[in-house]
Amino acid sequence: MSALAIDSGPATAATTGAPLFSARDIHAYYGESYIVQGVSIEIQHGEILALLGRNGAGKTSTLRTIARLDDPALHQGEIWLDGQPIHQMKAHEAARAGIQLVPEDRRIIQGLTVEENLILSQVSPGIGWDLDRIYGHFPRLAERRKQEGTTLSGGEQQMLAIARALARDLKLLLLDEPFEGLAPVIVHEIEGILNEIKELGITSVIVEQNAVAALRLSDRA
Fold first, then answer.
1. Is the pTM for the entire model greater than 0.85?
2. Residue 59 belongs to domain with CATH number
């Protein structure tokens, strides 16, 4: 994909029409293993992009690099979100800038209820979705708000993981295998939720083995 010249001034992607997100020629390594090899991506505001490919192609590693996790380590390239240089940030700084990763293992906090998991994700008042808005889009979570999060079904845990991202300051949602191991009826339900999120203007990147579902949901792949 073509590289992008980003204006890093005060104007945002939404006001200038520039892509919300851009990765330019990023190269990342796990130790000596060269995993992410010259990836370039640009994504418009409100778009869903699917990253497809064989196992071991570096899709998950690309998401982890974008989210600025320690592994893999970024050796070269630039990552921009809404005019901000993400490649210069640590993971917690990238999260504050609006990049939220929903990993394949979901990372639901053991011992906490659904509602406690959501409240813990609300970093600052007035930033991100409040509980009423979350429960309006995730009625299953509303029904199970007092249930321990790790006792939910796989599909419900995936909903909770997505909802936690929405409870934060979210500009770019990264989804790693959101349909993995889920029954077709649950895949369809989560697709519906992600389509609702898209209609609200939230930009997403999906890594998914279920190419049919990913292509049905995404604008580009």
1. yes
2. 3.40.50.300
